[in-house]
Every structure is written in structure tokens, then in C-alpha cells.
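[Meeting: bench + compute handoff]

Bench side (C.D.) handed over the final construct sequence. Compute side (W.E.) agreed to return the predicted structure before the next meeting so the bench team could plan truncations. Sequence as handed over:
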Amino acid sequence: MKDLMKRMFAARENAPKITYKQYQHAFEAHHVWKTRLINVIQRHTHLEELHPDAWECHQGCQLGQWLRGDETRHLAEHPEFLKLLDTHEHFHHAAAKLLQLAIEHRGREVLFQMSRYGEFEAASLDLTRCLHRLHHGRDHN
């Protein structure tokens, strides 16, 4: 049992990680983008002029560019990083769906999606959890 614990802690210590500065940068980039979308939905009077597919592009945002940049190359095969890539893409998909609901004036559904029970908020929370686990060198298993 003691040997197993040593191997588990050694694996955690040797797992690829992101630095605190990288974690903070990624978290802030996600939060700023998410807040911007919510503000657009809450304040924009001509939502029909917006294009949900533009918001669905997960590679164009600051976090998406960082995820595919040189700073994260060492994480390319790490299972938690791969999960983060998928989760980030799913978040943008949920964001585009949220914006489409707002364009269609489906206010109740918009509020639900932004609540802790909605897909949009759940995807956001999953994304921040992945970042946290990468910072601390843990897998999601």
C-alpha cells in the first residue's frame, strides 16, 4: 500500500502542469470572454445582427489561441489537456446556442442556460475545473 501511494504521488509530481501565471491568464481570458457574451446578450438591442457561428469559433478567442500555442505544446498528449480542448470547444458550442436563444427572444431558456443547471454554465465550470487540474497536475479520473 505504501509503495502504491509513493507511485501515485510521484506520478502527480511528474505530470505536465501549467504555471500559476498561465493558469491565471487562461482563467481570466475565459472569464472576460464569457462576461462579454453575457453583456452582449443583456444589453444589445439588435441581437439579430449578431452571428452565433462567430461566437462558436473556439480557436479565435484568446484562450483558444493560447491552448494551441507554444506555451502548451508540452501538454499536447496529456489526457487532462485533451479534455480541456474538448471542453473549451463544447463551451463555445453552448455559447452559440445561448446567443441563438437570445436572438429568438427565448428569455426563460436563456436564463436557464446561464444558471448553474444550464449547459452554458456547466460547460464554463467544466472548463475552469480542467484548468485547475492542469495547474495542479491532476487527471480527472
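W.E. noted at the follow-up: The mean pLDDT is 87. C.D. will use this when planning the next construct.
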